[in-house]
Design a protein that fits this description.
Elements (H helix, E strand, L loop, with lengths): L6 H37 L13 E13 L16 E12 L12 E6 L6 H4 L15 E8 L4 H6 L4 E10 L1
Parallel strand pairs: 3-5
Antiparallel strand pairs: 1-2, 1-4, 2-3, 4-5
């Protein structure tokens, strides 16, 4: 037992012991939480989309309303001039926006979209593509990150589309 006539010294030791107990209890919890988080993330399947939405993009769930055909300005040997790549898409749900997306969309909007890798299945058209897509038809529901086309007013008048899609996750037909 510590004998002292100074009550401040005793209180100081008690404070130090209590602080050490608090710190030690939090360290153990922190380690357990980290292990629990790591286990739960290992059980999840990998996500098709990055967690954050890229700048100038809007993450949506959409439905193909109509297929408008091929890109008129594409070169003759470009797949976009040979197979359908333009469609009208209805916005069914808005999941979020990346920074710098200047024209917010609303559920129910119908927008003209260029599918950079066409609406057809990509396996035969783009054999070296890392991620292949099954193709979309009228009525197909899908999830994607739309890129807003950055163009001046004159360019927008001649474009066949207002947004570009580079990839998607098929949901249902």
């Amino acid at each position: 037992m510590l004998k002292t006539d100074n009550p401040y010294l005793v209180k100081g030791w008690i404070s130090i012991v209590l602080m050490l107990c608090v710190v030690m209890s939090h360290c153990g919890r922190s380690l357990q939480d980290n292990q629990r988080t790591q286990r739960s993330s290992e059980q999840k399947s990998p996500s098709f989309f990055p967690e954050t939405i890229p700048p100038n993009h809007c993450r949506i769930v959409g439905t193909i309303l109509s297929i408008a055909g091929t890109l008129k300005t594409a070169q003759a040997d470009d797949p976009l001039s040979k197979v359908p790549c333009l469609a009208v898409v209805r916005i069914d749900s808005i999941l979020g926006y990346g920074s710098a997306f200047t024209n917010p969309l609303a559920v129910g909007n119908e927008i003209s979209v260029l599918f950079q890798f066409t609406l057809n299945p990509t396996k035969d058209i783009f054999p070296t593509l890392q991620q292949h897509y099954p193709g979309l038809t009228v009525g197909s529901v899908f999830r994607t990150d739309l890129e807003e086309v950055m163009a001046d007013e004159q360019q927008k008048k001649t474009l066949q589309y207002s947004h570009i899609i580079y990839g998607y996750q098929f949901i249902k037909r």
